[in-house]
Amino acid sequence: INITNTGGSIVLVATENAADAIVINASAGGIDITAAGAATEDIDITNSAGSIKLTSGEAVADSMVFASSGGIDADAVGQVNIASSQNAADAIVIISSAGGIDITATGTASEDLDLLASGSSVNITATEDASEAIYLRSNGGTSETIRLHADQGTGVASINIGSDVGGITIAGGLGTT
After folding, report:
1. Is 72 left (phi over 0), alpha (psi -120 to 50) or beta?
2. Does pTM surpass 0.70?
3. pLDDT on residue 76
């Protein structure tokens, strides 16, 4: 069945107050949603009273992909944004219940992976009982450095390296200070 309106719009409206007021079901194939409009003509999915859930039952790699080859404006070509306006400690949650999480940034020297907590802290915790449970590494060339820096701390522990039970080892190839 093809539904075509040349030069006009197609609007589907359901007034029933039910969880399945409009159902689009392809029981033996896929569903494609394509818009070929101008840069300001987006695909909007809005639920004004509840949540939006995207679920994939495919148990293979890349079962759900969010990608952009164009942007929302001329300065954001290919940008993907995840944002929340909820004022809560868990406003955005990323969980992998059975595997790891990889975050990769491949760009030039000024296109970094930045983590910024504006007005709050950054906490990194590992619960694996293993050597190098937390591992910070730089592997970009002979000019690379790793820097720990406290801008405004005035106390004697402005930068504090501690071990509750074990020791602390600082070693260097050219010299140790």
Report:
1. alpha
2. no
3. 53
